[in-house]
Amino acid sequence: MAWNEPGKPGQDPWGNPGNQGGSNKPPKKSDKDPDIDALLKKAQSLFGGAGDKFNNGGFGGIGGGIIIGVILVIWLLSGIYIVDPAERGVVTRFGAFVEETKAGPHWHIPYPIETVRVVNVDQIRTAEIGYRSDSRNRSGNVPNESLMLTKDENIVDLKIAVQYKIESANQYLFEVSDPDMTLRSVVESALREVVGQNRMDFVLTEGRNEVVSKVQELAQANLNDYRTGLMITSVNLQDAQPPEQVQSAFADVVKAREDRERLINEAEAYANDILPKARGTAARELEEASAYHDRVIAQATGEASRFTSIVTEYQKAPEVTRNRLYIDAVSNVMENSSKVFMGSENSNNLLYLPLDKMLGGQQAVPLKPVQSNSTNSEPAAKTAGGNTSTINPQRTNIRDYLKNRELR
Questions:
Q1: Cβ–Cβ contacts within 10 Å for residue 93, how many?
Q2: Residues 6+ apart with CB under 8 A from 156
Q3: Tens digit of pLDDT for each residue in 104-158?
Q4: Inter-axis angle of helices 247-316 and 318-335, nearest 10
Q5: What single string gives the DSSP state of each residue in 122-177?
Q6: Most CB within 10 Å of its CB: which of 163, 222, 299, 387?
Q7: Rounded-to-integer distance, Cα 142 and Cα 130, Å
């Protein structure tokens, strides 16, 4: 038997204790029963009284369902979002991380269940350590960041600019409360550590590139340990100077160091110019000496061979060989002289013979005696042995005369 079967008191599904006896009449509503129509009217009144129209037409329940469905569709569509190629979407559910989405259209459960935070991971950000610059590129010094102590207990004023970007959007948003400030502190700490391990001269002069590379390496390792989600792309040393109070003295030191380097370079350039020339000159002189050595030896060998051959010929014909040697000797003497004085044994007259004109092919001028104490008009050339010989002034070559004499 059904639980609301007539005849059983207290089993009325409408909760009406008076409905006993199995009557099919609907029970009367009590004051405490919820009025569904009133609730629908209140919901429909929010949309411009559309509910009244539907109620008047007899469609109150259907209109409310449609409105609720439209609201539900709009709420679900609000979960669609698009991520650009340079961005990453971080989805959280009731504040807890769910996933990280890449470029393209996506959907998440709408607010308040899930929310999305879009982060630009390709944007290059800049952090300034030791100074601050404004929109007009005017920079101001920050002494509490720029002044640092070196290994040799000197103070240097350093300014660096750090460029970085977001590598992990999840870590950037949730692992650290303020990642950008953390990066500034980490870079400043790394810079002070590196500067404290080196001397002032090294930091300000030849060690700049090394300091920058070490700072970037150390700072990136610390950022990874802190899980900040940031990646340093470059570290630029903007300025490295001693404190303002000692800059003039330090400038003098730097100038003296530069002068020393310049003089050293000039000396090396001069040495590089002189040494090759000296080596070339030495090599040339050695070659010339070697050539002179070979030439002298060859000449001496030839002279010895010639002398040997003359001795052989002298042994065969002494008189002819002797005359020939005499003629050759006189010829060599005459070739190197342009003035010849001629005379005879029986006269004190001396005649001047212009050999330079005769050897040049010009007609000889008749000779006039310097002194005339004899009637002998035939001049004689005095030789080294005291002998005289007659010379025809019309001859143009003394060598031909000597050769003709030899033949006679």
A1: 13
A2: 147, 148, 150, 195, 200, 203, 204, 240, 241, 242, 243
A3: 888 888 888 888 888 888 889 999 988 888 766 667 788 888 888 888 888 888 8
A4: 140
A5: S--EEEEESEEE-TTS-EEE-HHHHEEE-TTS-EEEEEEEEEEEES-HHHHHHT-S
A6: 222
A7: 5
The pair of structure tokens assigned to 169 is 């959007």
Look at residue 394 and tell me whether its pLDDT is greater than 50.
no
Rounded Cα distance between 286 and 275, Å, is: 16
Query: How many angstroms separate the CA atoms of 328 and 399, rounded?
Result: 10
- CA-CA distances (angstroms) from residue 70 to 40, 42, 77, 219, 322? 15, 17, 10, 54, 148
Give the torsion sign (CA, 373, 376, 379, 383): negative
Residue 166 tokens, joined: 């977001």
CB 106 within 8 A of CB 82: yes
Joined tokens for residue 310? 């003359």
Q: Which tokens is 393 given?
A: 């002034």
Task: Give CA–CA dist 240/157, Å, rounded.
Answer: 6
How many C-beta atoms surround the C-beta of residue 63 within 10 A? 20
Q: Please give the C-alpha separations between residue 36 and each of 27, 51, 60, 205, in angstroms, as whole numbers.
A: 16, 13, 10, 86
Instruction: Tell me the per-residue pLDDT of 243-263, one tens digit each, with 9 for 90 and over.
Output: 777 778 877 877 898 899 999
Strand partners, 92: 97, 115
Residue 157: how many other CB atoms lie within 10 Å:
19
Backbone phi and psi for residue 119, each to the nearest 5 degrees, phi listed first: -125, 135
CA distances from 161 to 103, 131, 224 (A): 30, 9, 20
> Quick check: pTM over 0.85?
no
8 Å CB contact between 134 and 204? no
Contact between 391 and 351 under an 8 Å Cβ cutoff? The reply is no
For residues 196 and 202, give the distance between their C-alpha atoms in angstroms, rounded to a whole number. Answer: 11
Residue 344 host element (H or E): none
If you compute the radius of gyration of the chain from its CA atoms, what whole number of angstroms results?
A: 63
